[in-house]
Amino acid sequence: MLKRKTMNVKALICFLFCFSAMVSFAQDGKDAWESTRIPELVLAFTKTEGWRHKSIEKGVKTLRELGRENGFIVLQTETAADFNPENLKNYKLVVFLNTTGNVLNTQEQAAFKNYIAGGGAFLGIHAATDTEFDWPWYNKLVGAYFNGHPNDPNVRKATLTVTDATHPATAHLPKSWERTDEWYNFKSIDPNIKVLVTLDEGSYEGGTNGNYHPIAWYHENLGGRAFYTGGGHTIESYDEPLFRTHLLKAMLWCFKRDSE
Length: 260
Hints:
The protein is of the alpha/beta class. The protein has helices spanning 9-28, 30-35, 56-70, 85-88, 106-117, 136-142, 241-255; strands spanning 40-45, 72-77, 93-97, 121-125, 145-146, 155-162, 176-182, 186-187, 194-200, 214-219, 226-229.
């Protein structure tokens, strides 16, 4: 588990930009210098106060791989004190990767709320919905709360239905997408989310949401872009090409790099 003090993010950005620009210049000449852009920074928050998923480290590794391949940089933290105005303003996206329980205090919550209101972006993966149950604003941000899952086994095969293939995070997916994961049931589903993918409860046992069982959605209701996907419980999830692209395209959408 990673513990760290708040880093000097501005210095890191400067170093990375200068390094990438020099490399590009050396390889491609003057035009490359002019076209080099500062990479987006992503904060992957993995603090847990409840169940801790074994897939967290694999998830962070996957996000970092996607970043190296697509021009953004992922920094991991489990230090809630990093949720302060001075630090958060450096990030284009904050990812709650299998967080659980109450992970932010009142001051940190206020900083995060202001970050989103100011146009910051949020991506929740799997247990992000098993987080901050006593914070109504977070319910609206993440879109729903965890309400149990099938047991014995908790991981099982199910069929997902893509209900909106116009979004970048679902455009590559088949209409009927069969995969294996731990399938959450939800409560307190916000009526303003825009659902992209639903679960077919007839394809597995243990679903409790009935005919309306969203599993991936997005919205822009609180000032910035927000996306949630229910996949990502298993280590194996992060090796699936379709799921990896789903995550990547969700992140690029959060960056407003929609057309990539």
